[in-house]
Amino acid sequence: MMSTAAAFYFLIGIYCIMAKRNLIKIIIGLIILQYGADLYLSTIGFRMGEALISLTEILGLTTTAVLVFLSKKIYNKIGTFDVSKMRRLKG
Amino acid sequence: MSVLLPGFIMIPIVAAVLNILSGRLLRRLPEIISALTAFYLLCAVSTLYFFRPFNYLLDYKMLGINLKLDGFSHIILLAVCLVVFLVVLYASAYMEKYPGKEKFFALYMLMTAGMNGVLLSRDLFSLFLFLELAAISTYLLVGFKGEAEEIEASIRYLIIGTIASVLILIGIGLFYNSPGTAKSFIAVLFLAGFGMKAAIVPFHAWLPDAHTAAPAPVSATLSGILIKVLGVYALARIFYNFLGMTPQYSIILTCFGILSILIGGLLAFGQRDLKRLLAYSSISQIGYIVLGLSLGTPLGIMGGIFHLINHAIFKPLLFLNAGSVEQQTGTRNLDELGGLYHKMPITSITSLIGSLSISGIPPFSGFWSKLFIIIACVQAGNLWAATAAILGSILTLSYFLKVQKLMAFDKLPEQLKNIKESPAIMSFAVIILAFLCLIAGIFYPYVVDYLINPAVIALSNGVKL
After folding, report:
1. What is the ipTM of this complex?
2. Using the beta-carbon criterion (under 8 Å), do B173 and A41 form an inter-chain contact?
3. Residues in contact with B71: Cβ distance below 8 Å, sequence separation at least 6, in sequence order
4. Contact B395, B281 (CB under 8 A)
5. Which residues of B touch A (CB under 8 A)?
6. CATH architecture of the region A2-80
């Protein structure tokens, strides 16, 4: 049951990252993705899982903080959060 | 001698803190601290080579984390410390024009600590911790120049890196939770996660942008050691020592290796931007390493590790030279360059050595490692892989000849009449790297005997083919 919910969270997160154009929504997608992973780890239920959850919470928070910082910086440069408006880097 | 082990992680972290604190006191202090730290790390890892025990497993407990050093992690630790030292020397001159130099060196030291931690930790839990430490500092380093394009590359790298970390995390959870039941699923998760970190072909989207956007010392580190430590090393360690190599995994990894060699090489061929070309070439060379390691035979593992070490020498060399060229001429578009042989002789000659080595021309180190990989493919009966490796080698030669012709030997354009050679300390770093290319090529039996073979033994103990 819990792992199904975790997989659901995971898929929503992936969908957000793939389909959304707004950088803020992509960040929310990443957070949902990380929550999915944490929810799955909570179903493991032994000490390794607990330690992993507290570790990933901290690391996820750091990553999100870095991403928000970078998004703020790029907003100051180009004035939009729209990913499609950003200069396309060549393939 | 195992007392030295925690220093590889703790001393760079302390240096990072000191960098931030000291940057305001004295402008030159951060780079002096970083260079001393890197020099200490290089000395320590070389010392360990003289005092290595017979069973070759050093063990030390730090804050509940078991640190272990065996042949495989030792050789890569040596490459990491060497490249970090030379890149810090180079960066002390290169980062002159950027503001916030102390932040750069602090992040760089944190990244070093993360990479050393990945190499020394032996359980998946602390491996993941150090992997994230290295990855998060790299996300910030890639966008260090602060222009819109660089930040965009950094954001893209961060998003792909975070997805990779989540996949690895779920893999670790499954690995400890379900004994043996879903092993192939765990392997797929690890392959996708570490494959994204290593930029093997279907997962390579972030690498060209990140390598092109980052400042030259960071691209050199990223391409030279970071993708290998976070990607290939972790992948090899997990597939050989945790999951156990089976024929199925071997075939899948071989396919990824061949794909990387050919697609990376073909994409590199069409590039006009020097750093972007080198980035695609990295994907191609990572393919060789994965191909060698995937075969599972001792010769294949040896070729893979040898190529890994060689690539950790010549790719930083080429990236640092690209940085010198960009700094002196203001462009990295190959069409606007030319004739640098007369104006920047050291940069041109060292990059010629690097190019010859990476394309596998006999006296240089790249030839032997590619030869070992191709022979191992033939021995394993995998002629398709051998053909792909030879084709990839020809591709590499052709696009590096193109680079040399357009950059060093063509006619000097009018607007580049007044360029000068790069500063002495930057030249020093690339000369050392070029020298190592030559030394490792000429004395390859000694390199293989003393450095590579312990690594092969450490890895092939876990082979179950």
Report:
1. 0.93
2. yes
3. B56, B453, B454, B455, B456, B457, B458
4. no
5. 125, 128-129, 132, 136, 139-140, 143, 146-149, 151-156, 158-159, 162-163, 165-166, 169-170, 172-173, 176-177, 208-209, 212, 276
6. Orthogonal Bundle (1.10)
Q: Which tokens is B302 given?
A: 């040896």
B25 to each of B11, B102, B378, B423, how far by Cα in Å? 21, 11, 60, 25
Cα B460 to Cα B122, B124, B187, B232, distances in angstroms: 16, 19, 19, 16
A26 touches chain B (CB under 8 A): yes
Give start and end residues of each alpha helix (H) in A20-46. 23-44
Letter for the amino acid at B299?
Answer: L
Q: How many CB contacts within 8 angstroms connect chain A with chain B? A: 94
- On whether residue B59 sits in a domain, the answer given is yes
Closest residue by Cα to residue B414 from B326, B327, B337, B333: B337
Domain holding B331, by residue range, is 2-460
In 3-state terms, what secondary structure has residue A12? helix
How far does Cα A3 stand from its chain's mean position? 18
**Domain for residue B98, yes or no?**
yes
Tell me the shortest Cα–Cα distance from A20 to chain B, in angstroms. 13
Distance from CA of B64 to the nearest CA of A (A): 13
Look-up: residue for tokens 């580190």?
Answer: B221
What residues have CB less than 8 Å from B262, skipping those under 6 apart?
B284, B287, B388, B391, B392, B395
Angle in degrees, CA B405, B409, B415, rounded to 5: 105
CA atoms of B331 and B313, how far apart (whole Å): 24
Task: Give the pTM.
Answer: 0.92
- Mean pLDDT split into 10-residue runs, chain B, 465 residues: 82 92 82 92 88 64 76 90 94 85 91 93 86 93 87 91 91 76 83 92 88 91 92 89 83 92 91 91 93 89 92 93 89 83 87 90 89 93 91 92 86 78 87 91 88 84 58
8 Å CB contact of A89 and B152: yes
Tell me how far apart the alpha carbons of residues B53 and B412 are, in angstroms, rounded to a whole number. Answer: 55
Find which of B154, B159, B168 to mutate to test the A interface (most A CBs within 10 Å of its CB): B159
In whole angstroms, what is the distance from residue A39 CA to residue A37 CA? Answer: 5
Nearest CB to B169: which of A51, A52, A89?
A52
Q: How many domains does chain B have?
A: 1
Using CA of residue B356, residue B362, residue B364, residue B368, what is the dihedral sign? Answer: positive
Q: With 0-12 CB in 10 A as exposed, 13-18 as middle and 19+ as buried, what is A65?
A: exposed
Searching chain B, which residue's CA lies closest to the CA of residue A34?
B166
Q: What is the pLDDT of residues B211-255, one digit of tens each?
A: 998 999 999 999 989 999 999 999 998 888 888 788 888 899 999
Domain ranges of chain A: 2-80
- Between CA B435 and CA B291 the distance in angstroms is 27
